[in-house]
């Protein structure tokens, strides 16, 4: 009798597992928060695709395009829960993510390729160029505060968009590390008409930014007008020194 009961339990568990494994991808899109819109889902809950996805950040909608995802239930205990890839024209996103029991979100091995023009939807910065980010690790608390970032961001073909025409700046890299002092990033110029060096530090919700600007672009009148409120003149160009809370 006990053998029959064991077989029945095993068969029920296997049947339930097969049902869960075949849950359609539409369940994932239906459970998505209002800040995520996903169209034409296909596949399963665990390995699916959405033909077009948009996400809302601070009330602004951003297109991720075609999205593939894979869920890893055991990642709750041992690592990443989700791997995700998206493409929208030249924009590409590839990352793995996990969630800790206390609610922290960890992103690892993230690769991002995008046009930087989306920044002006969040900040009053009229910039152009191509953004490449390779983030080895990013950890954000349940309260939404970044606590750890390691990686490199490159801004290629950077330009400042002005009424009289774009001001070509150059190509810049930011190397980001995390220490006891917080998250810090060092900015260096790889090439270009604007020589930019600087550093930022983020600890909790407090930040500080320092930067020195020089070169031919720093003498452009339109560029000078654009940075007038946040930069002070120096012998070689301009200096930015900002601090505050997010």
In short:
It is built from 4 helices and 14 strands.
Task: Describe the overall structure.
The chain is built from four helices and 14 strands. It has about 250 residues and is an alpha+beta fold. The protein has helices at about 1-20, 25-30, 75-80, 220-225, and strands at about 35-45, 45-55, 60-70, 80-90, 90-100, 105-115, 125-140, 145-160, 165-180, 180-190, 195-205, 205-215, 230-235, 235-245. Strands 1-2-3-4-5-6-7-8-9-10-11-12-14-13 form a 14-stranded antiparallel beta sheet, covered by helices on one side. It folds into two domains: about 25-85, no CATH class; about 100-245, no CATH class. It is about 15% helix and about 55% strand. The protein is globular, with a radius of gyration of 23 Å. Mean pLDDT is about 85; it is low at about 5-20. The termini are far apart.
What order do the helices and strands follow? HHEEEHEEEEEEEEEHEE
Report, as a whole number of angstroms, the end-to-end distance.
65 Å
Mean pLDDT: 86
Describe the main β-sheet briefly: 14 strands, antiparallel
Rough shape? globular
The helix content, as a percent range, equals: 10-25%
Order of strands, main sheet, comes to 1-2-3-4-5-6-7-8-9-10-11-12-14-13
Assess the beta-strand content as a share of residues: over 45%
Topology at a glance:
Elements: H1 2-21, H2 26-31, E1 36-43, E2 47-57, E3 60-71, H3 75-78, E4 82-88, E5 91-99, E6 105-115, E7 127-140, E8 146-160, E9 167-179, E10 182-192, E11 195-203, E12 206-214, H4 221-227, E13 231-233, E14 237-245
Antiparallel strand pairs: 1-2, 2-3, 3-4, 4-5, 5-6, 6-7, 7-8, 8-9, 9-10, 10-11, 11-12, 12-14, 13-14
């Amino acid at each position: 009798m006990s053998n029959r009961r064991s077989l029945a339990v095993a068969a029920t568990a296997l049947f339930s597992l097969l049902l869960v494994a075949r849950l359609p991808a539409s369940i994932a899109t239906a459970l998505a928060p209002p800040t995520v819109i996903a169209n034409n889902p296909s596949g399963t809950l665990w390995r699916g695709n959405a033909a077009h996805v948009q996400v809302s950040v601070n009330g602004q909608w951003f297109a991720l395009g075609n999205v593939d995802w894979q869920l890893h239930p055991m990642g709750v205990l041992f690592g990443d829960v989700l791997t995700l890839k998206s493409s929208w024209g030249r924009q590409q996103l590839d990352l793995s993510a996990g969630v800790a029991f206390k609610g922290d979100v960890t992103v690892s091995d993230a690769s991002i390729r995008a046009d930087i023009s989306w920044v002006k939807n969040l900040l009053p910065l009229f910039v152009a160029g191509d953004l490449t980010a390779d983030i080895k690790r990013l950890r954000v608390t349940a309260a939404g505060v970044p606590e750890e970032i390691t990686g490199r961001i490159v801004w290629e073909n950077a330009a400042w968009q002005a009424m009289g025409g774009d001001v070509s700046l150059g190509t810049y890299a930011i190397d980001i590390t995390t220490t006891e002092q917080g998250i810090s990033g060092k900015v260096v110029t790889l090439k270009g008409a604007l020589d930019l060096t600087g550093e930022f530090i983020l600890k909790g919700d407090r930040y500080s930014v320092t930067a020195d600007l020089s070169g031919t672009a720093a003498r452009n009148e339109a560029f000078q007008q654009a940075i007038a409120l946040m930069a002070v003149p120096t012998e070689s160009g301009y200096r930015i020194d900002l601090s505050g809370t997010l």
